[in-house]
Design a protein that fits this description.
The chain is an all-alpha fold. The protein has helices spanning 2-24, 29-52, 60-83, 93-101. It has one domain (28-101). Helix 2 packs antiparallel against helix 3. 1% of the residues are buried. The model has no long low-confidence stretch (mean pLDDT 86).
Length: 102
């Protein structure tokens, strides 16, 4: 039952993020769908070992750790790529954040 709470919290976080991006004029449907697809990919990377390998196998732990490491590295890569995305005015999201703060 706790997974329902996790889903509700995730939906709320997404809705708040969408509203914030729309208010600041940085909203993009293509980036939104890319982020959703990326989240699905992360879930697939982590759940595949549970579906493919017997959990009592001696290889299960090593494969699961490898999957989590791959997912973490993929997430870090995604953050680095997202910071270089260009906004409609030509600035990167990092430049826009710095301009807003300063």
């Amino acid at each position: 039952m706790s997974w329902i709470l996790a889903v509700v919290v995730q939906i709320a976080a997404i809705a708040l993020g969408v509203r914030r991006e729309q208010r600041s004029g940085r909203w993009s449907w293509s980036k939104f769908f890319f982020a959703l697809a990326f989240g699905v990919l992360e879930c697939i990377i982590i759940t595949v070992p549970f579906l493919v390998i017997d959990q009592h196998s001696s290889y299960f732990g090593a494969v699961l750790i490898a999957a989590v490491i791959i997912a973490a590295l993929n997430f870090i890569w995604m953050v680095l790529v997202a910071r270089r995305w260009k906004l409609p005015d030509g600035r990167t999201s990092l430049q826009a954040y710095r301009d807003r703060k300063g």
